[in-house]
């Protein structure tokens, strides 16, 4: 990726944050003060090292980023475009996790594993998924495009596209036409 495309991706990330965070006041504020942005930008560097076989430096860099931001993204995780982590403290994204485009996570979210065997151990989040604070999505499962995972939900099974997942263990229901993602994530009936 050339320097021009790196700058373009960073501007795209900042625009995505402005779109999703009503508290964002300026692009400069986002670029300098949002730990979710810093974690994502650093992850791109560490992931590039990881895929080139430079595993130790990639892991060391990801741990430095974790220490600085409170967000742990394994350098092996595959992250799509316009990924936004709001607040971010306590977010964990495992090694074999895959995150699609336009995904949003709030603080305390875990994309974790449930088994010790090798291979795919972490979830896949399709495009446009939003995950509420404290939610845990565990194992090699797939969360379909456009899903909303409620705060503190524990998801251990696949979810079809355009579902709302709430509870422990989470149960899925189809999103109703016109349901706004932000409204779903802040409605008291969708948190535990």
UniProtKB/TrEMBL annotation:
In which domain of life is the source organism classified? Answer: Bacteria
A Pfam entry, by short name: Hexapep
Q: Which GO terms describe its molecular function?
A: serine O-acetyltransferase activity
Q: Which PANTHER family match?
A: SERINE ACETYLTRANSFERASE
Q: What CDD domains does the entry give?
A: LbH_SAT (cd03354)
SUPFAM superfamilies given in the database record: Trimeric LpxA-like enzymes
Keyword list (alphabetical) reads: Acyltransferase, Amino-acid biosynthesis, Cysteine biosynthesis, Cytoplasm, Repeat, Transferase
Protein name (record) = Serine acetyltransferase
User: InterPro entries per the record?
Assistant: Hexapep (IPR001451), LbH_SAT (IPR045304), Ser_AcTrfase_N_sf (IPR042122), Ser_O-AcTrfase (IPR005881), Serine_acetyltransferase (IPR053376), Trimer_LpxA-like_sf (IPR011004)
Spell out the reaction equation it catalyses.
Answer: L-serine + acetyl-CoA = O-acetyl-L-serine + CoA
Q: Which family does it belong to?
A: Belongs to the transferase hexapeptide repeat family.
Chief localization: cytoplasm
